Amino acid sequence: MRLLSPQLGEGFLFNSNKYPEAPKKAAFASLNYPKEDMMAENEKYEESKLYRVRHSAAHVMAQAVLEKFPKGKVAIGPPIEDGFYYDFDLPRPLTPEDLEEIEARMREIIKNDSPFVREEVSADQAREIFADQPYKLELIDGLEKGGEDEHGNPTDEAQIITIYKDDQFVDLCRGPHVESTGKINPKAIKLMNVAGAYWRGDEKKPMLQRIYGTAWLTPQDLKQYLWRLEEAKKRDHRKLGRELDLFSISDEVGAGLILWHPKGAMVRHIAERFWEDEHLAHGYDFVYTPHIGKAQLWETSGHLGFYAENMYSPIEIDNQKYYLKPMNCPFHIEIYKSDIRSYRDLPLRYAEKGTVYRYERSGVMHGLMRVRGFTQDDAHHFCAPSQMPAEIDFVLSFSLHILRSFGFQEIKAYLSTRPEKSVGDPKQWEDAEEALEAALKRSGLPYDVDEGGGAFYGPKIDLKIKDALGREWQLSTIQFDFNEPERFDMTYIDEDGQPHRPYMIHRALMGSIERFFGILIEHYGGAFPVWLSPVQVKIIPIADRHNDFAFEVADELKKAGLRAEVDDRSDRMNAKIRDAEKAKVPYMLIVGDREMEEKQIDVRRRSRERLGAMDVAAFKALALEDVANKVEG
RNA sequence: GCCAACGUAGCUCAGCGGUAGAGCAGACGCUUCGUAAGCGCCAGGUCGAGGGUUCAAAUCCCUCCGUUGGCUCCA
User: Fold this and answer.
1) Residues A285 and A306 in one domain
2) Domain harbouring A572, CATH code
């Protein structure tokens, strides 16, 4: 179905199923549009009018809330992506009705068109103004002390304390704001929901009530944003997972544990088969390792020291404690250590789709995206230091090849460097970081550097993709490890006949296969590319007398490796087409009297495009070409 | 784990103190049909679990489990 997004006008047609003839870029742009279109090119969000509008809307909302709850305490209220929020400490939980009331009051305040007035004050003046606002007082202390901004984050500069007044409200705030409340378009704001949030994000501190709102420059923009939310809801992998019968999660089995249904398992199987072929073609060896390992192993690896809170309780077997594995690396290392390694053996690349179990707190599970048991497409590279730059180059380009094959074209890299606390020789760190950055430069990928953002055991590159809705997801990670080779005393014998320490790289491309599947579902809205579709062809006989011929066609297609099914129910053709469309089967082949007569089939795509009658051989060639080229039809 | 909302048929939802309802899906029967829903009939629920209030609880209260939106954490 073609959806016309509201208020978009020419050039912003969005096709809900992302069919091949749909202009892909336009589809992306329409979903993606907000920041890009709302702001002048290269303008920073923080300096945009939109940012000021949202910040100002937060103040207006705070006033409305305080009017309703005069004893309420306010915390902070910044603009965020797509809107703003404000945290409150209130005598009772807010209800949806409260939000409506607050929103209505906001519109009145906006109508007053009262100016935002900035004032610089001393810390003591500020304390007087906010005498009954404990959270503000805490912020003022931080500002006065310096080294902390209004969010409590460290800063270099001493802070000037400023307040902003508008209408009946005054807030401790750095600004900036719009000139007056009237600059906020009352028809372009909406309060979205209430959620709990810890004061300063610290779970030991009080839980506040956070009201999320959205604000835009025009009502059209708001409408567009709400439409985008709707679209995301339609593509929600949990909803599609049920509708397309891909997977489920059973209370009986347990939260965060995924059951892959035949259709979902087929997609996974195809994806894994591709993954396997590519790995074998690129110098990897496959390994298989068990799900549990002795406590001593996890002591040696350090997991019981630094990862214990994510691990499940031990299982006791013959007076020995065993742990369910949260990672695969110790096993791969043991395989490495099972023999003496020569520099001639290196690099070694051990790959395994290893299923790991990690404890997740009960409130954080989310469909396939956040689970307690998942399979990593893991691999560990072991190489001599001299081989390291080439190895990085290889693994980065291999990662990109895999991601692009699944239809993710927009990829961004994040390089994380040495944190303050780290293990390993600084020279090694430098070499590794240099190699990572050089490889990034050669790849031509856009990348950001997160100084000090690496793990204590090594620097890393993370790859994030943008999906069809413009949302970023981290998939791949390529991590150096200076820790485990040391802990396990890994060595190889170099040309000099002496043992040397190898370099070790962990990498996962899809990351978690469960999560990757979830992202694929949402990216494609359930309409997988032909090569991944669990059912690629549905053959639809018009009447019972066409069934035999339909099965003949199916057999021929199956022999060619295509996944074809016949819908031989006694329903009308229209109903069969509808069901096949809903199942997002890429091709429907209609067979009736005419086709049987001519030994042909009538081809229809899920995009509703009709390719017309053709020979089975012609269709087979066409479909196989789509599979080979991984087209998204 | 924390805050809030929500758990009624396989799915989506109505009912919100007086003996459980719809649509879709399913079974069966009729229909054999040209590019997104043919018709009829049947079956299906200890209303998430446990406790309490009441003459009476899906409905009100408490506890637990789960889900959703956030917080924190993270693949």
Assistant:
1) no
2) 3.40.50.800
Tell which of A458, A491, A524 closes a domain. Answer: A524
User: Which nucleotides along chain B are within 7 A of a protein C-beta?
Assistant: 1-5, 11-12, 30-38, 65-75
Q: A541: phi > 0 → left, psi -120 to 50 → alpha, else beta; which?
A: beta
Please answer whether residues A286 and A351 qualify as being in contact, where contact means their C-beta atoms are separated by less than 8 angstroms: yes
Does residue A296 share a domain with residue A276?
no
Residues A580 and A483 in one domain: no
Q: What is the CATH number of the domain that holds A486?
A: 3.30.930.10
- Cα–Cα distance list, A376 to A269, A327, A355 (Å): 14, 9, 6
List active site positions of A. 329, 358, 376, 378, 380, 460, 506
* Protein CA at A94 to nucleotide C1' at B52, angstroms: 28
Write the DSSP assignment of A49-93 as a string of letters.
Answer: HHHHHHHHHHHHHHHHHHHH-TT-EE----EETTEEEEEEE-SS-
Strand pairing category for A169-172 and A189-198: unpaired
Q: A566: which residues sit within 8 A by CB, 6+ positions away?
A: A538, A539, A541, A547, A550, A551, A554
Our count of domains for chain A comes to 5
Same domain, A215 and A268: no
A301: containing domain: 291-324
Q: How far apart are CA A138 and CA A120, in angstroms?
A: 18
Of A326, A292, A284, which Cα lies nearest the Cα of A309? A326
pLDDT in tens, A566-602: 999 999 999 999 999 999 999 999 999 999 999 999 9
Is residue A238 a part of any domain in this protein?
no
Asked, for residue A529, whether it belongs to a domain, the answer is no
The verdict on A450 and A417 lying in the same domain is yes
Phi then psi dihedrals of residue A292, to 5 deg: -130, 160
Instruction: Give the closest residue to A542 by CA, choosing from A570, A564, A514, A508.
Output: A570
| ipTM confidence score | 0.93
Helix (H, G, I), strand (E, B) or coil at A241: helix
Same domain for A282 and A295, yes or no, is: no
Question: Which residues lie across from A586 on neighbouring strands?
Answer: none
Look up residue A430 and give its two tokens: 């430098």
Tell me, yes or no, whether A61 lies in a domain.
Answer: yes
| A39 in any annotated domain | no
Residue A559 CB lies within 7 Å of the nucleic strand B:
no
Q: Which of A306, A324, A342 is the last residue of a domain?
A: A324
Range A109-122 average pLDDT: 92
Same structural domain, A211 and A270: no
Q: Strand, coil or helix: what is A589?
A: strand
> Do A310 and A390 fall into the same domain?
no
Nucleic strand B contacts from chain A, 237-256, CB < 7 Å? 238, 242, 249, 251, 255-256
Give the nearest nucleotide to A367, CA to C1': B67
**A144-183 exposure pattern, b = at least 16 Cβ within 10 A, e = fewer:** beeebebeeeeeeeebebbbbbbbebbbbbbebbbebbeb
Query: Does the CB of A207 sit below 7 A from strand B?
Result: yes
A56-87 pLDDT tens trace: 999 999 999 999 999 899 999 999 988 999 99
Instruction: Write out the H or E segment, with its range, that includes residue A374.
Output: strand A373-383
